[in-house]
Design brief:
The complex is a heterodimer of chains A (262) and B (259). Chain A has 262 residues and is mainly α. Chain A has eleven helices and no strands. Chain A has one domain. The chains are: A mainly alpha (262), B alpha/beta (259). At the A-B interface, helix 2 and helix 5 of A face helix 2 and helix 4 of B.
Chain lengths: 262, 259
């Protein structure tokens, strides 16, 4: 218990560093671009238009309100993808600072995942524009979306911490990971309906796929206007907790050796 | 020396470094990729060449003392400072430090070159553990000491290295820390700024701050410090009064050059 208290005190001391790092990421992302923050909303919209055009002409899936179906999956998976890809280089990329000053090292990974969360809120504005434009019946259940985001954030943070520490010792991880996320994306029902999946692969794509739990919950509350099934919520929370514990444990165990490898 | 130390209670020391060794795996043998790792493991070649940057080093500093650490390049001076700051964990031995520390290992280490000086002051302050409101209170003071009033909204990448050093020093020394750790940082600044920094450090020492100081300029070490530690290839060669240790070190160095 004492150990947890010390960690929390350390975090409290450096909370303004976390804020400063997140502000830096957001400021620098669009510095010198004409449209600036508008890109955060415009980008997911334009990608959705491209994907919508491709998939509605090529495959003709029978999905009601395909734009919202597509965008919910796309911004959820996109957040996880962006956050973990930044997290993976968060320690190796902060070598200068880690070698020269003492700061809790997880701050770097935490700040990257948090910056992506801010981007997710911007992307959500794009989603609301499409929801209103396509006339989705919005219900009070839509107000539950922060709960989905919290589950998603905790899961992504855990995965990010694990990847960040592993990448310090084996730089290959980043290249392997980009292949894995591509496979992961096609396995997740982002632009195709769940019914399209064969029986054999359903276990992998739905039951054992953390991202499916978050995308399904998100669609339930904003697109279908209903309460997500208890099993979906329980699965999402379980994956989040397990990944955070594993990620934090592996990170804290390895962090004293970082300085020898960066 | 030994008898005096035995009498003093451990509690009197603000910095206690006891029998510390720091081990590095030499960079030539570093295994970075999974493929290399597997191949080396199969060949049973996963033996690292070990290198001790510090071997069995002890240092006990009482509050208010000022210590110079001297030695030739690669003797472990910076490693010792990093161990004291907590940046490197020792391979064996213990380090205890009581009180607040301002580590000046490299000025402006936390700067982001794309951000302006104004933004960097807040970022660097946060790296040092200061809150935003604290920095706001001392903002003018920092800018004044660094003499960068006219360049506040210019990105740091357009600064000269001397300007970066001034700003870094100014932020790091805005509070009076209990321990100030300085590693050969003033070399880039001009003469006037070096003097200004030395004055601020002297003021801190007379105000009760403990100093650990690394420099190759033995003249400044003699001016700033009362005691000195001489490191040679990671081991303590000599500890004691600053003039005695500096004289012995210089005698050895000149022997090397002439002999």
């Amino acid at each position: 218990m004492n150990w947890i208290k010390l960690r929390l005190q350390g975090f409290y001391k450096y909370k303004s560093l976390l804020a400063q790092l997140v502000i830096r990421d957001i400021k620098l992302k669009y510095r010198r671009s004409v449209l600036g923050y508008v890109w955060s909303i415009l980008n997911p919209l334009l990608i959705m238009v491209v994907m919508y055009t491709v998939f509605s002409r090529l495959f003709r899936f029978d999905i009601p309100n395909f734009p919202v179906y597509l965008l919910t999956g796309q911004i959820t998976f996109g957040f996880m993808n962006e956050a973990t890809n930044f997290a993976i280089i968060s320690i190796t990329g902060s070598g200068g600072l880690i070698k020269k000053t003492y700061v809790p090292k997880y701050i770097f990974t935490l700040s990257k995942v948090t910056s992506s969360l801010v981007n997710l809120f911007f992307s959500s504005i794009a989603l609301w524009i499409v929801i209103l434009a396509t006339g989705v019946q919005v219900t009070f259940y839509a107000l539950l979306f922060p709960i989905v985001f919290i589950e998603l954030y905790v899961f992504t943070l855990g995965l990010g911490l694990f990847l960040a520490q592993a990448a310090v010792f084996f730089r290959d991880i980043q290249y392997i990971y980009s292949v894995l996320t591509t496979a992961w994306m096609y396995l997740t029902p982002i632009f195709y309906p769940v019914s399209l999946l064969e029986e054999g692969i359903k276990v992998w794509a739905l039951r054992l796929n953390p991202m499916y739990y978050y995308i399904q919950q998100f669609r339930d509350v904003v697109l279908y206007g209903q309460m997500p099934e208890m099993m979906t919520v329980a699965g999402g929370v379980a994956f989040a907790v397990v990944f955070l514990v594993l990620g934090a444990w592996s990170f804290l165990r390895a962090q004293d050796r970082f300085i020898l490898y960066i | 020396m030994v008898t005096i130390m035995a009498e003093i209670n451990q509690e009197d020391y603000i910095i206690s470094v006891d029998n510390v060794s720091v081990r590095f795996n030499l960079a030539t043998e570093r295994v970075d990729s999974l493929k290399e790792y597997v191949i080396k493991m199969l060949k049973r070649k996963l033996l690292f060449q070990e290198f001790f940057a510090l071997k069995d080093v002890s240092l006990h500093v009482k509050a208010g003392e000022s210590w110079g650490i001297i030695g030739s390049n690669g003797s472990g001076k910076s490693t010792l400072l990093k161990v004291v700051c907590g940046i490197i964990k020792p391979y064996s031995g213990t380090v205890a430090l009581r009180g607040s520390v301002a580590p000046l290992i490299e000025l402006g280490a936390g700067f982001d070159v794309d951000l302006t000086a104004r933004e960097n002051i807040f970022l660097n302050g946060a790296v040092l553990g200061y809150s935003k409101s604290f920095i706001k209170q001392h903002f003018d003071e920092i800018v004044q000491f660094a003499e960068i009033e006219d360049f506040l909204d210019v990105p740091i990448k357009n600064y000269s290295s001397g300007m970066v050093a001034r700003l870094g020093f100014s932020i790091a020394t805005i509070v009076k820390p209990q321990v100030l750790i300085v590693d050969e940082i003033l070399a880039v600044g001009d003469y006037a700024f070096q003097k200004k920094c030395e004055k601020r450090m002297s003021d801190m020492i007379s105000g009760g701050t403990t100093l650990l100081y690394v420099s190759h300029q033995h003249k400044t070490v003699r001016e700033m410090c009362k005691k000195a530690l001489w490191l040679k290839q990671g081991r303590v060669e000599m500890v004691g009064d600053v003039n005695t240790v500096c004289d012995a070190y210089i005698a050895e160095q000149s022997n090397k050059v002439t002999g």
